[in-house]
Amino acid sequence: MLKVENLSVAYGAIEAVKNISFEINDHEIVALIGANGAGKTTTLHAVSGIVPIKSGSIFFDDLEISKIASEKIVSRGLVQVPEGRRIFHNSTVEENLILGAYLRKDKDGIAKDMEYVYSLFPRLLERKKQLGGTLSGGEQQMLAMARALMSKPKIMLLDEPSMGLSPLLVKEIFDIIKDINSKGVTILLVEQNAKMALGIANRAYVIETGKIVMSGTGEQLLNSEDIKKAYLGG
Amino acid sequence: MLFLTYLINGISLGSVYAIIALGYTMVYGIAKMLNFAHGDVIMIGAYIIFFMIYKFNLPILLSIIISILICLLLGIIIERLAYKPLRKASSLSVLITAIGVSYLLQNLAQLFWTSSNKIFPNIISNGSFSFGSISISYLTIITILVCLLIMLVLTLFVNKTKIGMAMRAVSEDKDAARLMGINVDRTISITFAIGSGLAAIASALFCAAYPAVYPTLGSMPGIKAFTAAVFGGIGSIPGALVGGIMLGIIETLSKAYISTQLSDAIVFAILIIVLLIKPTGLLGRKVNEKV
Ligand SMILES: Nc1ncnc2c1ncn2[C@@H]1O[C@H](COP(=O)(O)OP(=O)(O)O)[C@@H](O)[C@H]1O
Ligand SMILES: [Mg+2]
Question: Domains of chain A, with CATH numbers?
Fold first, then answer.
């Protein structure tokens, strides 16, 4: 579904992502784990087309997308739930969801998906007319995911959905990610919380200072001594 | 009773400021820049109305509509050629460019149409309504009504339409808006188009009250409207209305009761005091700082 080949991204002279390659197959959950500053967010932004790439290629359903506009990428079915949620604080919950479906024209489909995301996140339904900025951190994460789902994606990139949430909420969010995946949406999950991410991922890549240093199935990495030491606290 | 007449005239003058202030405030809200050339779009709008009526003998309303359309296009072109290439530049470069565009428009007007005054046609009949001892001109009433209508339509547009929602999203977080599939450049273009179209409406109302057209015509109402936008809280649409009307009232009352020469000084002194007490303006809110 998504194939990144020899991708490099630089901010001026600083190369944040160095020649990385990875691949995500249809219906998989793939995790990309790494410490703060490793280049995870930069990678996702490059895939979504909001930072220019330096070299390499990105294929989405066999189409090279590294040079096409971000809105075209969204309309083809690749959506991102950005780090820090980035919901629209001055818009209501409902307006955030409408914006998530910005490029869609199928009114009936949008209405159906609105129902679907409200059933996935009933708390959002209760807060439908509230401004996004008044939601708690967990609710904002839910809204960010619901907003992304409104684009009817084939693949969803999630950037640190567990950040700043209580363990209980993290579990709830991860259960919903699995549920979304089971409905046919492919997932690329970026996390610092390696344990949780590897727990639900089919496969995973480890990124360190802009390079992919290891890959394998979720289980393989969970049992790897190096990973235990570096990311799982011994 | 004279006071009431002054007050209503002040509201009317303020309505023109409010319409112009919308252009500053919407562009600032979305592109985070001060478009100092906005006042000069008013000037271009006035010349177009003048020529449509006198050179081409077109009806008044049609002339105004053509002026709106041309200004709207001018707004898009200015943004495209002058500001879009600077999207990632420092705000100082953008500001200097805006001042440059302002001078360019003024000098082009001087080149093509000379610096001598042209007398703006009488577009609204001279009559007036009388309520007891108060008499209010048609122009005054029409100006206030047009302003209220614009505010109403614009508020509905921004709050209820998808493009309006996208505009609010872009003004809050451009990258997040892009991730939703919103075309940020197009949204900015639309904002410039709306602001510049409104400037053409303002030029009709302003020149109906002060019927002289000349290349620097837009400077004074431009700077007053900019002040009104800051006064009300830059970025806020209701702020533009409140700021514009307040400014119009203060200016008119100062002229009537204090001094014609000092009225502008009084306006700016009050602006400074308001900003000292509330730096975001009367209705402005703090911008959400992103981490
Ligand atoms: N807008 C930017 N300008 C300059 N450097 C940046 C920018 N964004 C990120 N970086 C740098 O790029 C590197 C990778 O950052 P990022 O992709 O955000 O990492 P992660 O998401 O893994 O924490 C870091 O060294 C960071 O400081
Ligand atoms: Mg990150």
Answer: 2-77+153-231 (3.40.50.300), 87-152 (no CATH)
What is the rounded CA–CA span in Å between residue A221 and residue A32? 12
Task: Show me where the domains of chain B are located.
Answer: 16-125+134-218
On the CB side of A112, CA atoms within 13 Å amount to 7
Hey, are the CB atoms on B179 and A103 less than 8 Å from each other? no
Displacement of CA B251 from its chain's centroid (Å): 17
- Reported as a single tens digit per residue, the pLDDT across A16-50 is 999 999 999 999 999 999 999 999 999 999 999 99
- Contact between B203 and B45 (Cβ < 8 Å): yes
Q: Is the CB of A82 under 6 A from ligand 1?
A: no
Query: Is A39 touching ligand 1 by the criterion CB < 6 Å?
Result: yes
pTM, two decimals, is 0.91
ipTM score for this prediction: 0.93
Contact residues, chain A to chain B, C-beta under 8 Å: 45, 48-50, 69-71, 74-75, 79-80, 82, 84, 86-91, 95, 98-100, 102-103, 133, 147, 151
Q: Is the CB of A16 under 6 A from ligand 1?
A: yes
* Shortest Cα–Cα distance, B178 to chain A (Å): 6
